[in-house]
């Protein structure tokens, strides 16, 4: 009896392992792969507006416009960056005027560490802050800059994407 039970388990074990691996791959893909689905978030792609060339604006789904500027330009790595986010009157009406916002900066192609500078309110819907982007081992890196009211990821509705590049003279 025990021998037939062991043989049955030995036949089923590879299938159980395969199902578990498939389920794990599915969960990891859902969590970490960017499928382009916005889930209610407006995404400004580099081909729509290039933050390396100047400020970019996006319509907030609840109404109003957010404009992000990063200087210096083109956006460098390993150098201090000034971040400026402006909300028009309609966006201020929808978001309120919190004393600060956060800008979550995440690498799209690979994890680049936790980058979430705080942008302080300076009046009239203008928020400013500073950060430094780490250098990437690849020649170019796409970043997703997600505006987070009160640092709440669930309240994020606008994301700006931009690409940083390094010249061959830069040493990591």
* Cα end-to-end separation: 63 Å
Q: What shape does the CA trace take?
A: elongated
Question: How many helices in DSSP terms?
Answer: 2
Hey, roughly how much beta strand do the residues contain?
35-45%
Structure description:
This protein is an alpha+beta fold. The protein has 2 helices and 9 strands; from the N terminus they run αββββαβββββ. The protein has helices at 2-32, 89-95, and strands at residues 42-44, 56-59, 65-71, 80-87, 100-107, 118-123, 126-132, 140-149, 158-165. It has a 9-stranded mixed β-sheet. A hairpin with a 5-residue loop joins strand 2 (56-59) and strand 3. 18% of the residues are buried.
Offer a quick outline of the entry.
The chain is of the alpha+beta class and 172 residues long. It has two helices and nine strands, in the order αββββαβββββ.
Produce the secondary structure layout.
Elements: H1 2-32, E1 42-44, E2 56-59, E3 65-71, E4 80-87, H2 89-95, E5 100-107, E6 118-123, E7 126-132, E8 140-149, E9 158-165
């Amino acid at each position: 009896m025990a021998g037939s039970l062991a043989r049955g388990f030995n036949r089923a074990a590879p299938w159980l392992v395969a199902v578990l691996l498939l389920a794990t791959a599915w969960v990891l893909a859902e969590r970490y792969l960017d499928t382009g689905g916005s889930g209610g978030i407006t995404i400004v792609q580099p081909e729509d507006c290039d933050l390396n060339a100047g400020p970019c604006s996006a319509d907030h789904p609840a109404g109003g416009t957010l404009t992000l500027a990063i200087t210096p330009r083109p956006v460098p790595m390993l150098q201090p960056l000034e971040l400026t986010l402006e909300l028009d009157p309609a966006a201020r009406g929808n978001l309120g005027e919190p004393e600060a916002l956060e800008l979550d900066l995440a690498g799209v192609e690979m994890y680049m560490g936790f980058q979430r500078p705080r942008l302080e309110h300076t009046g009239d819907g203008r928020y400013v802050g500073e950060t430094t982007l780490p250098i990437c081992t690849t020649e170019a890196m796409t970043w997703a800059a997600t505006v987070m009211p009160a640092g709440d990821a669930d309240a994020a509705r606008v994301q700006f994407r931009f690409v940083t590049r390094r010249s061959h003279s830069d040493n990591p």
